[in-house]
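# step 3/5: fold
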Amino acid sequence: MISWVIQYQAAFIWIGLMSVVTFLLGLLIVPLVIIRLPEDYFIFRKTNDHEIFVLGGLRTLFLILKNLMGVLLFCFGVLMLFLPGPGLLVMAIGLVLADVPGKRSIIGRLLRVESLRAVINGFRARQGRPPLKFED
C-alpha cells in the first residue's frame, strides 16, 4: 500500500492542489456572482438567440469570455462534488454565465433544491440585496 502511494505521489499532490484551487475559486467567485444577479434572473423569458451574430467585436469578445468562465465554473463545480467546495452552487453559477442549449431546464432542476435556494437568498439578504425570484 505504501509503495502504491509513493508511486502515485505526484498525482496525489495535483489532486490536493486542485482541491485547494477549486475551493478558493468558489470562495472568491461565487459570492460576487450571487450578489450581482438581478432578482428576476430565474424568471425565464424568451431571449433572442441570434443576437450574438450582429454584435460588435468588443461585445462578442465579452460573450466569449463570459461563456469560457461559465464552462470553467461548471467544470469546477463538478469537481467540487467530489472535492471540498459548494459543487451544486458553483455548477448553477457556471450555467448561469454560459450560453449553452438547455441551460434553463438544467438550472431549473438544480434550483428546485430548497436548501440551495435558502443559501443563495440568505447570502443576498446579508449583503442587503433582495431575494431571488424563482418560477415554480
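# step 4/5: annotate
DSSP finds six helices and no strands in the chain.
# step 5/5: archive (pending)
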